[in-house]
Amino acid sequence: MPPLSSGLTIATWSELADRTPTYALVAGVDLVVIRYGDEVSVLYGRCLHRGSLLADGSIRGDDLVCGVHGWDYRVETGVSAYANDEALQKFTAWVDTDADAVMVDEGEIATWKREMADLTAVAFAGAAGRQET
Ligand code: FES
């Protein structure tokens, strides 16, 4: 279901190949867009192992597989089938069939990016504090 705020088009639905990872960039965040049948999944687009672009990966069964070392993530959820504690952020996405567009909530993605930056800053501050004592 689309959110109340207006969406941002990130792909043309009719041109999105089935089960083919596709790159998008929103609010400075790399994304991977995957059409599977009549559904679409939009996930954080960097592998949690070493940060490779997942749009360069492939689909194997229900999994998005990183092309570098083979880490896998469920297309529908972003959760790794191999290690369930590894999960890509899944963003709200929907298909506007009238506009032939895949849409996301840009505000949601920008907020997630800010939250990740804050967590990183806290982690660095914590590490610096430990070094000083
Ligand atoms: S960078 Fe993706 S599996 Fe290593």
From TrEMBL:
> Which UniProt keywords are given for this protein, alphabetically ordered?
2Fe-2S, Iron, Iron-sulfur, Metal-binding
Q: What is this protein called?
A: Rieske [2Fe-2S] domain-containing protein
Question: Could you name the domain of life of the organism this protein comes from?
Answer: Bacteria
Q: Where is the Rieske domain?
A: 8-102
- Keyword Transmembrane helix appears in the UniProt entry: no
- One short Pfam name that applies is Rieske
- InterPro entries listed in its UniProt record: Rieske_2Fe-2S, Rieske_2Fe-2S_sf
**Any GO MF annotation of the entry:** 2 iron, 2 sulfur cluster binding
Q: Gene3D superfamilies attached here?
A: Rieske [2Fe-2S] iron-sulphur domain
